[in-house]
Design goal:
Helix content: over 70%
CATH class: Mainly Alpha
CATH superfamily: Ribosomal protein S20
Strand content: under 5%
Oligomer: single chain
Shape: elongated
Low-confidence stretches: none
CATH architecture: Up-down Bundle
Length: about 90
């Protein structure tokens, strides 16, 4: 543990940020899992799940939890899966 007061505060703040960031990343993974499950059931459900997923990815990128390019790459990947499912049916 740090000896300087400001360094101690930094440790506490980083701990809080780490918990929040991990929570958001976990939430994104859950939305992705829900999207894939909805994709196997119904395309309409998958579209709604994609909207939620894309929205959460954008907000995470805006909050600098994940990089903007990473969010865009994931959105493109899931959009491609959705389009393939639409064309298959």
């Amino acid at each position: 543990m740090a000896n300087i007061k400001s360094a101690k505060k930094r440790v506490l703040i980083e701990r809080e940020r780490r918990v929040k960031n991990n929570s958001v990343k976990s939430e994104i993974k859950t939305y992705a899992k829900n999207f894939k499950a909805a994709l196997s059931e119904d395309v309409a459900k998958a579209e709604e799940a994609y909207k939620l997923l894309a929205s959460r990815l954008d907000s995470a990128a805006r909050e600098n939890i994940i990089h903007q390019n990473s969010a865009n790459r994931k959105k493109a990947h899931f959009a491609k899966l959705l389009e393939n499912a639409k064309n298959a049916k």
